[in-house]
Specification:
By secondary structure, this protein is an alpha/beta fold. The protein contains eleven helices and seven strands. 40% of the residues lie in helices and 14% in strands.
């Protein structure tokens, strides 16, 4: 019985990778090793990131498309919640050293960055906000003399910000196009909060989002700045070829038009606590119910 069980296990593991050559499996393993991702051998493909990569590799089909998929995966950033605090400290170092309005006497109010339309919803930035209560931050000599106060009520914010020595830090774990950040600041401006009193902090941000925020005259800091995965990385004929390859990949996966190349064509290669829709859909897109389920490496739902 034991021998039969072992054989079944081996067969199921093989079935999740059926169709991939030994070299392809080695290439995927290399991506995992370079990125520090653990390779688990669960029987169910849904329970294994490695198996999910294998499944998606098979769905890409075309060899050139598969090569592009792996090349993008090599530059993929997976920042799980375990690494949030470490990256918060990196971003805060930038904030306290570069933000001119911030002194040891400044009252620092911290609030979740959220679009007006999303108020009341549960957002991943809430977890980052809570880290400002972490004891490690309070006793860190780099930040212990700053008074961080978490604010959740916008109604009381105006009165607090009347103090000339007060600043408001809006925090988010990820910023893509920058549209949400700008909308949030513009709403606060209507509340009478001066733009020069506002800073934005994120753990990860796209270059285009950073540019859009800073063009509005808002101070911005992040611990990880990211470029577009294809447009900012390749040039000339290689760029043209890879754009066509990605277009074909997304067409084969039946990705909706609005999601192609990531929301706002951000071309992101990022997964945070959750995968933002700014990321290339090849890494997160799974068909809706009713179609045979296809497994994505970093599903959003």
């Amino acid at each position: 019985m034991k021998s039969k069980s072992k054989n079944n296990k081996k067969n199921e593991e093989k079935s999740s990778r059926k169709g991939l050559s030994p070299q392809q499996l080695i290439s995927i393993s290399s991506v995992f090793n370079d990125n520090g991702w653990k390779i688990k051998k669960e029987l169910n493909p849904e329970d294994s990131l490695f198996n999910r990569f294998c499944e998606r590799m098979l769905e890409v089909k075309d060899e050139e498309g598969q090569a592009l998929f792996l090349d993008l995966a090599k530059r993929y950033l997976w920042l799980s919640s375990d690494f949030y605090f470490m990256n918060l400290l990196k971003a805060l170092e930038h904030l306290v050293s570069e933000y001119e309005k911030l002194t040891s006497d400044t009252k620092v109010y911290v609030m979740m960055l959220i679009a007006p339309k999303d108020e009341g919803k549960t957002k991943s930035s809430a977890m980052l906000l809570y880290l400002f209560n972490d004891t490690r931050l309070r006793i860190d000599p780099r930040f212990s003399h700053y008074r961080f106060e978490i604010i959740s009520d916008k109604e009381s914010l105006h009165q607090k910000m009347d103090d000339k020595d007060a600043v408001l830090v809006l925090v988010d774990d990820y910023i893509g196009t920058g549209d949400t950040a700008v909308a949030c600041v513009e709403q606060l401006d209507k509340f009478g909060i001066k733009m020069e009193q506002i800073a934005i902090l994120s753990l990860v941000a796209q270059e285009e989002g950073k540019k859009k925020i800073e063009e509005k005259g808002i101070f911005f800091c992040t611990s990880n700045l990211r470029n577009k995965g294809i447009s900012d990385y390749y040039e000339g004929k290689e760029l043209e070829k890879n754009v066509r390859l990605m277009q074909k990949i997304e067409k084969d996966l039946k990705v909706g038009e609005k999601s192609r190349f990531g929301y706002g064509q951000s071309e992101a290669l990022v997964t945070m606590c959750r995968t933002p829709n700014n990321t290339f859909p090849v890494f997160w897109y799974e068909p809706e119910l009713g179609i045979k389920k296809k497994l994505a490496p970093f599903p959003r739902f």
